[in-house]
Design brief:
Blueprint lengths: L20 H8 L1 H15 L10 H22 L6 H16 L5 H24 L4 H49 L6 H10 L7 E7 L18 E3 L6 E5 L10 H6 L5 E3 L3 E2 L3 H17 L7 E3 L4 H6 L3 H11 L8 H16 L4 H8 L3 H15 L6 H20 L1
Parallel strand pairs: 4-6
Antiparallel strand pairs: 1-3, 1-4, 1-5, 2-3
Helix pairs in contact: 1-3, 2-3, 2-5, 3-4, 3-6, 4-6, 5-6, 6-7, 11-15, 12-13, 12-14, 12-15, 13-14
């Protein structure tokens, strides 16, 4: 494993040199010094105040011994770069990240332990009657040692965080794929994968289908809602929002602003295991937005356009209905056909109330009555048959949407 070379480490003292024979004297006291350093760390750093038989205690002891050994090895051979011991601290840093702990505790332990070790070893140097300049050189070397192992631990921590983040993203992508796959989804499978992806399983979700951007500039990427699972690489890009009807969900203006102007369709709120249904309707709505059947810009909420989505759920069947039910209108001219269709739909929706039709279409009631007489000639008694009236409403509604998109 390649451990990054620490930067900003002071050069080794060159004058005076630390006597190499001092290394053996210090090495003889290493176990006793390690005991004192370990006790000091356990006393001052709460995270290391664990039971004496715990794994954490073993890791602490190993780390202390390794750091002291590196210090002594630097004295014995200034050319030794301490690569093996740096690798140990690199792994210690990785372990802290993988356990989800902060690096602060390890760095605090290094500072506390380094100070304690220096006091002990400095006292030994004074007892040996070493020159003050040698003692100062030992201090610089102690600082260098602490810096080296701290840098190695920080590098390991950063590398593990990066890998952990990438792995977390992969797990969340698998979770999103599971939630949105066709067919029944087992809640137990969702809970298992969600646990490994660190994603709290909500009771309800909604899926947002996003219009694809011509380029993938980072500044155009939507800001995901809290806890949302996002896949910008799918077609269309999609976002699964947990608890969409709660605070911070998709109901407010903040969510619209977070989309950064990207047109989007929000599927209905469903149970978490039925997210694929929300995606289907959101995708259908997004397609209708692109065709102009639904508003092309902004955010379209499927819950507000259910009848339109229902009408376009089977477009070939809808076209057959339109062709059959509206066949009588084909005998009228193009301009007349549109006016008659508009009047007939307004009449059916208003409960056959002529004044309401006139107000809705902004025309005179006599004009309405004139058009109704023409429609009576074309459709006859079918205008008063309940089932035919329902078919007419569906077909004329589809006709009006078709006219709008053109």
């Amino acid at each position: 494993m390649a451990v990054p070379t620490p930067h900003g480490v002071p050069d080794r003292p060159t004058a005076p040199q630390v006597p190499p024979e001092l290394a053996e004297l210090l090495r003889a006291n290493l176990a006793a010094v390690a005991d004192e350093v370990e006790e000091e760390v356990r006393r001052q750093v709460p995270e290391y105040a664990r039971p004496a038989d715990g794994t954490y205690r073993q890791n602490l002891r190993s780390g202390v011994v390794q750091a002291l050994t590196l210090f002594v090895d630097h004295i014995a051979d200034p050319r030794d770069d301490g690569g093996a011991i740096a690798a140990t601290y690199y792994e210690l840093g990785r372990g802290e990240a993988l356990e989800g702990r902060s690096l602060d505790a390890l760095q605090s332990a290094l500072r506390v332990g380094g100070m304690r070790a220096w006091r002990q070893m400095g006292r030994t140097a004074e007892e040996l009657g070493l020159d003050s300049t040698v003692v100062a050189a030992l201090g610089e070397l102690a600082f260098r040692t602490v810096h080296e192992v701290a840098q190695a631990a920080a590098s390991g921590y950063a590398e593990a965080q990066l890998r952990s983040s990438d792995e977390l993203e992969r797990r969340r992508k698998r979770l999103l794929d599971l939630l949105l796959e066709d067919g029944p989804v087992a809640l137990e499978a969702v809970q298992d994968l969600a646990h490994s992806a660190r994603w709290p399983v909500p009771r309800t979700v909604a899926v947002v289908a996003l219009a694809a951007a011509p380029d993938r500039r980072e500044e155009d990427r939507p800001l995901a809602a809290s806890g949302a699972l996002v896949d910008m690489g799918s077609r269309p890009p999609r976002m699964l929002v947990p608890d969409p009807d709660g605070s911070g969900g998709i109901g407010g203006r903040a969510f619209t602003l977070a989309l950064r102007g990207r047109p989007a369709a929000i599927g209905p709120t469903v149970a978490v295991t039925e997210a694929a249904q929300s995606l289907r309707l959101a995708t259908r709505a997004l397609g209708l937005m692109g065709r102009g059947v639904l508003p092309r810009q902004g955010v379209v909420r499927c819950s507000e356009h259910l009848s339109t989505l229902l009408l376009h759920g089977d477009e070939p069947l809808l076209e057959r209905l339109r062709a059959r039910v509206l066949a009588p209108l084909e005998t009228a001219s193009a301009g007349q056909r549109d006016r008659l269709a508009e009047t007939l739909l307004a009449w059916l929706l208003s409960g056959s109330n002529v004044p309401d039709v006139a107000a809705r279409l902004h025309i005179h009631p006599q004009t309405v009555r004139y058009r109704l007489r023409q429609l009576e000639k074309l459709f006859g008694d079918a205008l008063h048959d309940p089932e035919t009236r329902l078919d007419l409403i569906l077909a004329l509604r589809a006709e009006s949407l078709h006219t709008r998109q053109n």
